[in-house]
Amino acid sequence: MWYNLGVNNFKKINMKKIILLICGVFILAGCNQQDTLEKNYKNEGKGQVKNNQTEEEYIIDENDYVNSKTLIQNIEKTDLSEKEKNGLILMREEEKLAHDVYTYLYEKWGQKTFDNISNSEQTHTDSVKTLLDNYSIDDPVKDNSIGKFTSLEMKELYTKLILQGDKSLGDALSVGATVEDLDIKDLQDLLEITDNEDIRIVYQNLMKGSRNHLRAFIKQLEKNGKSYSVQYITNDEYKEIISSEQERGNLNSKGGRGMNSLR
């Protein structure tokens, strides 16, 4: 009898241990799953794209958010030629073009690089708007909606670029590189026809931002196994840009950071 009681108690004790062990396994598994969910939640939106592959997020240098009101606040205005006025009008819409194209492509592909750079481009077009206001030049941007342009050429270019960017993520990144390639070339040309310090300072900083953006798009293209064929600037200029580090800080009217540099 005492033997039977001992056996029964032993069985009950072991059964309790087994039940506790099983419960412990389920609790541990639940905790691990929760930890995984929490980690995924914390990482949401940080370098993730729609296909759930991670990407190295491009960090914009704070000075690529160009603030022309600060850059040119102590510079006196001088007379402008028609070429200089037309150049400002061109750049106002061209910088908006960059912003609008990248906004569209970010919505299409979820690539964070487009979102970051589109925010920078908004400050670029706003900076040109400041110059237009300072010189009492009529603003060509009548509607800030995405894809709306006064210039027929810009409208057609916008349509062409987003159609190309719709094809694949690689094509979209190539579109980004194309826009920056064009932007650098046009700014180079416009710098050749103006000696106004305020305009030159804004253009130099816009161009520095474009070089940084070009580096970012080329890096993402390479990560996706793609390459880019330069279209507007020279091959030597292109190679020099992509082989150098991201530029930081503000530039002066000559494109340098000497004694007259704005920091």
Structural description of this entry:
It is a single chain. The chain is built from eight helices and no strands. Helix 3 packs parallel to helix 5 (152-165). The protein is globular, with a radius of gyration of 28 Å. It is an all-alpha fold and 263 residues long. The chain has two domains: 1-44; 62-242, Ferritin, core subunit, four-helix bundle (Ferritin).
Task: Give the helices and strands, then pairings.
Elements: H1 2-43, H2 68-71, H3 82-109, H4 112-134, H5 152-165, H6 169-191, H7 197-223, H8 235-242
CATH class of the largest domain, named Mainly Alpha
**CATH fold-level name of the largest domain:** Ferritin
CATH H level, superfamily name of the largest domain: Ferritin, core subunit, four-helix bundle
Distance between the termini: 94 Å
Largest sheet: none
What gyration radius follows from the Cα positions, in whole Å?
28 Å
The helix/strand order is HHHHHHHH
Shape: globular
What share of the residues lie within helices?
Answer: 55-70%
Number of domains: 2
CATH architecture annotation name of the largest domain: Up-down Bundle
| Uncertain regions spanning at least 5 consecutive residues | 1-5, 9-13, 23-55
Strand segment count: 0
Q: What class, by secondary structure content?
A: mainly alpha
Strand content: under 5%
Output the number of helix runs. 8
Give the mean pLDDT: 82
